[in-house]
Specification:
Layout: E1 3-8, H1 17-32, E2 35-39, H2 45-57, E3 61-66, E4 79-83, H3 86-94, E5 97-102, H4 107-121, E6 128-132, H5 139-150, H6 156-159, E7 162-165, H7 168-175
Length: 177
């Protein structure tokens, strides 16, 4: 395995199917390039979609799941780590990963991204952060981060450390540069 990639994504069943499609494309391509995937490991929403895709292509998949969500565990994960809290889950999702990749997602995904970004800034996470900006999903966040930089609340150096890319291939190509 080339390394592990943490994937942050939606647990919603009601999102536009185009976001699930790009999520499946990303994990399949990552798996075929030799990466293992670490995710929330449930059957819900995009997490379930990527779980199905990894299972169908024989990809390595670690699910990190709080015990209070055990009724949602995807049954065919390669490995499962159980946690007591969401905070512990986020820490273990990142642990030992080469990068985190945020697919389009909701408030939980945003929480994971911002916490990881703060940890990167504080030199407590040494991987990379990618936002898969499919169909412009992350443009509002890009604008907010630029606002922070423009008002000197965020340095230009830190701003450049979050990599906003348009396609699954762009993420994987950047990892291999």
């Amino acid at each position: 395995m080339k390394g592990r990639l943490a994937v942050f994504c939606s647990a919603s069943y009601t999102i536009d199917p185009k976001f699930n499609k790009v999520a499946r494309e990303f994990v399949r391509a990552a798996s075929l390039r030799g990466y293992g995937i670490v995710s929330g490991g449930t059957v819900k929403g995009t997490m379930g979609e990527i779980s199905d895709e990894l299972h169908s292509c024989g990809g390595w998949h670690l699910g990190v799941i709080p015990r209070f969500m055990k009724q949602y565990v995807y049954p065919d994960l390669t490995e499962v780590i159980w946690t007591d809290t969401m905070a512990e889950r986020k820490t273990l999702l990142r642990e030992g990963t080469k990068a985190v990749v945020a697919l389009p997602g909701g408030i939980g995904t945003l929480d994971e991204v911002i916490e990881t970004y703060a940890l990167l800034h504080l030199k407590q996470y040494d991987g990379r952060i990618f936002l898969l900006n499919h169909d412009g999903f992350y443009e509002p966040l890009r604008a907010l981060l630029q606002h922070y930089a423009d008002t000197n609340m965020l340095s230009e150096e830190t701003l450049r450390r979050i990599e906003i890319v348009e396609t699954p291939e762009a993420v994987l190509n950047a990892l291999e540069d």
